[in-house]
UniProtKB/TrEMBL annotation:
Enzyme type, top EC level: isomerase
Oligomer and partners: Homodimer.
Family note: Belongs to the class-III pyridoxal-phosphate-dependent aminotransferase family. HemL subfamily.
Residues modified as N6-(pyridoxal phosphate)lysine: 269
Full protein name: Glutamate-1-semialdehyde 2,1-aminomutase
Location relative to the cell: Cytoplasm
Cofactor(s) the record lists: pyridoxal 5'-phosphate
Transmembrane segments: none
Amino acid sequence: MSNSERLFAEAQEVMPGGVNSPVRAFGSVGGVPPFMVGAKGAYLTDADGKEYVDLVCSWGPALLGHAHPEIQSAVHAAVDRGLSFGASTPDEAKLGKLIKDRVGGVDRVRMVSTGTEATMTAVRLARGFTGRELIIKFAGCYHGHLDSLLADAGSGVATLALPGSAGVTAATAAETLVLPYNDRAAVEAAFAEHGANIAAVITESAPCNMGVVTPDAGYNKFLKETTAKYGALLILDEVLTGFRASSSGYWGLSGKDEGWNADLYTFGKVIGGGLPTAALGGRSDVMDYLAPLGPVYQAGTLSGNPVAMAAGIAQLTHATDEVYAHILKQSTALQAKLSEAFNEAGVDHSIQRAGSLFSVAFGTSAKGVHNYADAQAQEAFRYAPFFHSMLDSGVYLPPSVFEAWFLSAAHDDEAMEKIFAALPAAARAAAA
Ligand code: PLP
């Protein structure tokens, strides 16, 4: 029995499914998940001493690579000053300012601890500000595990093929209108019917939790214009794409050039540098509706935690243009090698992109993937043999076809060559 097999068996005695987040259980790809004991640069090391090139990067946060020396030393220094003070600290506004300076329309920032909290607060704030009840979300988008946004959600909900979640009341579900992604007519029809009671549209700025789906040209701008026309808010969920798709998130690849800002944004992952921090940001008149200035309540014992703030500041300070250019270059090269391997093995596929983020969708070359129905219709069964062949060759991919692949500044040519070398056999496994 390997150490990971033993650890997984022990974990299953203590935790539901042996995990603290469902996709980690390898449910859709099968097998025993390797338990990790170390991470450095582009590599993970498991409990049996096997090393993997990591293409998950902690699901996004490890932008600079694991255990980046500048983040490690900022964290060590912060730890030495104390772990948590339960009072304001200088670094909170400093991290807030780094976010504000990079993303248009972020006048104010409120730190929270997880992306789920950020979107939950954004939804409550939108309702409080507008005095309306309905929220529009898109099928296949994942915004965390808050009750009102679990319907037709992506990520683990898609991986486990669930329609939503037990435990969400019918009344809560009825306050969320779920529409197909990239479908302007559906949005127009929903506003024509319910416009006076729609508080907000929440969307991933580029969906990455049903696999990656590129928004049609001008789609986010259309959402901004439509919400504005009806007095509703646009909440751009950049928890995954923020400070990763570009130095100013996916907004930097869309709104920045097109001349629009969201009313509210949610951030997470990268801004915590690997520690639990997320944030909500946006227009000052909306944000100032939050307590203590306004009537919408939100709070957190560990919000703005000083160790997490230090990690986030170090991460964003070192996330230079060169970092983003490097990640994009390696991502583009990997996409090309991936297509080459699949083409040689005769595996029909398409590669979906959002900045440096991408994923593969099998059997979709004819029309690509534009929404959740397209993503679900793919030949998903090809992913498990592909995934396991890569894992055996020492490459750690997301354990679900419905997740994006992540690279980091630490993915040097040596790490990339290891990935490239593993691809042909894995593509043949996918063909079988
Ligand atoms: N929003 C998006 C777009 C996400 O991808 C995620 C997590 O993957 C969340 C929100 C929830 O963030 P967290 O897992 O930190 O609660």
